[in-house]
Design goal:
Elements lengths: L1 E4 L2 E4 L5 E7 L10 H17 L4 E5 L12 H18 L4 E4 L3 H10 L3 E4 L8 H8 L2 E5 L17 H19 L6 E4 L8 H9 L1 H5 L5 E4 L12 H17 L2 E6 L2 H16 L2
């Protein structure tokens, strides 16, 4: 299986890419302290790359209620300068997490090569913007307020709901003109209503990988539920989750703990590639 990000092509037969998640400042970025915020974000990005990130993701979108999200002008003011700076400063592809086609379009113009949509392509202009830019997309299953109509975020068979939704979004992306190697599917395990749902989806990774697209998953200790773990225990949990995800077919791991996730992904790649 191949994944194309910008001008780079990755063989994902056994290798998993680690996506370092860089949290953009949600408010106060566009102010007298803009330069300080930008420098702090760039410093964080460089640390993630040094720890082994294959790509970086920036954005202001969270799983918070829609009313808590930034307005479109605010999101543009935060994301675009950061993407522009990252694209010039780091040697890895940059992804933008946004639900808005306008923000994705501006991010592509600033140097991003991936649009990660946690709403399931709710904006009808999202996929055409990626096609025009030659970008890749991540179709993430939305759980909660970000959900597009038909996302099926109820309490029924979560695995069947997510599988059907992701298959539909992949079909939409291909119909819009995106080749398969530029489409990533993400189960959204880190946005589930319960820990049980998250773990069921993680365990079902082999079934979801059968859809035939690169499969992404969050990889962090929070998937195991709220915890007061010591840092070393949290790293052990992250290692276990990342290893299970890769063994189940996930080939893109979203994480803020890049160093731990990178090590787990590399060990699994060696095991899976052993003749």
């Amino acid at each position: 299986m191949r994944l194309v990000l910008g001008v780079r092509t990755y063989d994902l037969t056994t290798r998993a890419l680690v996506m370092g998640v860089l949290d953009a400042p949600r408010r106060g970025f566009v102010s007298d302290s803009c330069a300080a915020h930008l420098d702090a974000c760039l410093g964080g990005a460089e640390r993630l790359v040094d720890d082994g990130a294959d790509l970086l993701e920036v954005g202001t979108v969270t799983v918070a209620p829609v009313g808590a999200q930034l307005s479109e002008p605010e999101e543009l003011d935060v994301v675009v300068p950061l993407v522009d700076a990252l694209a010039a400063a780091v040697g890895v592809p940059v992804a933008c997490a946004t639900t808005r086609a306008s923000v994705a379009r501006a991010a592509y113009a600033a140097g991003a090569v991936v649009g990660d949509d946690p709403s399931g392509f709710s904006d009808p202009g999202y996929l055409p913007a990626a096609v025009v830019a030659g970008a890749s997309v991540v179709a993430r299953h939305p759980a909660g307020a970000q959900a597009a109509p038909g996302a099926g975020s109820g309490t029924g068979d979560v695995v069947a709901q997510v599988r059907a939704f992701l298959a539909e979004q992949a079909g939409r992306a291909e119909k819009a003109g995106l080749p398969r190697e530029r489409i990533v599917l993400d189960t959204g395990v880190d946005g589930r209503a319960t820990t049980e749902q998250s773990l069921r989806l993680l365990r079902a990774s082999p079934l979801l990988a059968e859809l035939g697209y690169p499969l992404a998953s969050a990889a962090g200790s929070s998937l195991a539920g709220p915890s007061d773990e010591r840092p070393e225990d949290a790293r052990a949990t992250t290692t276990a989750i990342a290893a299970l995800a890769v063994a189940g077919g996930c080939r893109v791991l979203r994480t803020s703990d890049v160093r731990t996730t990178r090590r787990a992904a590399d060990v699994l790649a060696a095991i899976l590639g052993a003749g």
